[in-house]
Design brief:
Elements: E1 2-4, H1 9-20, E2 29-31, H2 36-46, E3 50-53, H3 59-66, E4 71-74, H4 75-83, E5 88-91, H5 99-107, E6 111-114, H6 117-122, H7 124-130, E7 137-140, H8 143-151, E8 163-170, H9 180-183, H10 188-191, H11 201-209, H12 211-224, E9 231-235, E10 241-247, E11 252-256, H13 262-270, H14 302-312, H15 316-332, H16 338-349, H17 360-380
Parallel strand pairs: 1-2, 1-5, 2-3, 3-4, 5-6, 6-7, 8-9
Antiparallel strand pairs: 8-10, 10-11
Helix pairs in contact: 2-3, 4-5, 8-12, 11-15, 12-14, 14-15, 15-16, 15-17, 16-17
Bound molecules: nicotinamide-adenine-dinucleotide and magnesium ion.
């Protein structure tokens, strides 16, 4: 197994799964951004042979902490190589930086356990071409998509003609029920305080704007080959129902568990075996209520923006995700307000004109272009 993004929230929880299943996996490579000491600790604990770090300037320091016998690889090229290394590749990198993992794992016919939704969405037309490689398989770690994957078990035809719609659940984030006026007062600390999940900073902010759900609509459409007109977002504040599938006859199949990412991670790693850990077990001997409501699309325009990007197709999802990454980073650096994030993304999308994606190089150029447009809007607004 290769675990790329080993020092993040998904990465650490994946290591937790491995610690409890020590005989099931051999971790041959890991990668991370800049936390070299933590990477070295993981490398020692799991006897990892190859380690990727993000920046060339960290090479010497990485060599120093990792010691002899461990190969150090650098940047996107390093990620690409490590993604070809193992039978199962976990893509737990955050953001577009995870692209080499997604593309190379599939091109090499590996099982890709996918947390990194950004690269998958941005590269959807390119991913579609490499997904047919013999041996290649995508298993979704994202909890909603892992749920839908399980709920679709009996729907085997391509495009799922027996399915009326996918019902993607959303907790609603920390600002559920807030008016537009009240949202003007949001601070960084408020936005980083998610009610039901503990996650990395970027996805936590995405969950507060509901852009995460917008990205997940695109992710579900690309994963399951179902058009976004057949995908509906349902707010479910308890985060117990992780998503649902409605069949043509009105039957709805759901997957339930306590919110614990180790469950979908272990599902992907173990499949078709289920590990005996009961991370997600629900105690039905105590009273519970599960509630459902429609999202407030007026207060949270990120969702309609994502649907529009899906309908525009081509490079539009890549633009959406790139602009969002820039805006979220600016918010985390206190450069813009929370209420600026989605309008900046919308301002970039207003400039989108139909672009088809033909190659990875073309996609990288589109990503960079959208980032420049977002940065320009941020600079102009200050
Ligand atoms: P995080 O910020 O906690 O961790 C990100 C990881 O990526 C770190 O190990 C970091 O070192 C690594 N990284 C960043 N840039 C890199 C680069 N250029 N090269 C190599 N490594 C790099 O993020 P996270 O919350 O673990 O999320 C990871 C991905 O999983 C995201 O795409 C997110 O949307 C998705 N996801 C996360 C959760 C969750 O519960 N955290 C749930 C569903 C989906
Ligand atoms: Mg999710």
């Amino acid at each position: 197994m290769a675990l790329l993004g080993a020092t993040g929230s998904i990465g650490r929880q994946t290591l937790d799964v491995l610690r409890r299943e020590p005989d099931s996996f051999e971790l041959v490579s890991i990668a991370g951004g800049t936390r070299l000491a933590e990477l070295a600790e993981v490398a020692r604990e799991f006897h990892v042979r190859r380690v990727g770090v993000a920046r060339p300037e960290d090479y010497i320091a990485a060599r120093g902490v990792l010691g002899d016998g461990v190969e150090v690889l650098i940047g996107g090229d390093g990620l690409a190589e490590l993604a070809r290394d193992a039978d199962v590749v976990v893509n737990a990198v955050v953001g577009f930086a995870g692209l080499p993992v997604t593309i190379n794992a599939l091109e090499a016919g590996r099982t890709l356990a996918l947390a990194n939704k950004e690269s998958f969405i941005a590269a959807a037309p390119l991913v579609a071409r490499v997904r047919d490689t013999p041996g290649a398989l995508v298993l979704p770690i994202d909890s909603e998509h892992c749920a839908i994957y399980q709920c679709l078990a009996d729907s085997t035809q391509s495009g799922h003609p027996d399915v009326r719609r996918l019902l993607l659940t959303a907790s609603g984030g920390p600002f559920r029920g807030w008016s537009r006026e009240r949202l003007e007062t949001v601070t960084r600390r408020d936005a980083l305080n998610h009610p039901t999940w503990s996650m990395g900073p970027k996805i936590t902010i995405d969950s507060s704007t509901l852009m995460n759900k917008g990205l997940e609509v695109l992710e579900a459409s690309a994963l399951f080959g179902v058009g976004v007109d057949r995908i509906q977002v349902v707010v479910h504040p308890q985060s117990i129902v992780h998503s649902m599938v409605e069949y043509l006859d009105g039957s709805v199949i759901a997957q339930l568990s306590q919110p614990d990412m180790r469950l979908p991670i272990a599902f992907c790693l173990g499949r078709p075996v289920r590990f005996d850990h009961a991370w997600g077990a629900i105690d039905f001997t105590t009273a519970q209520s599960l509630t459902f409501e429609p999202p407030d699309l007026d207060a949270f325009p990120a969702i309609p923006l994502a649907y529009a990007a899906a309908r525009a197709a081509g490079a539009a999802p890549a633009w959406l995700s790139a602009a969002n990454e820039v805006a979220v980073a600016a918010f985390l650096h206190d450069t813009i307000r929370w209420t600026d994030i989605v309008p900046i993304v919308a301002g970039v999308m207003d400039q989108y004109q139909d672009v088809q994606l033909e190659s990875v190089e073309g996609l990288v150029a589109q990503d960079q272009h959208a980032r420049r447009l977002a940065s320009d809007l941020i600079t102009r607004g200050r």
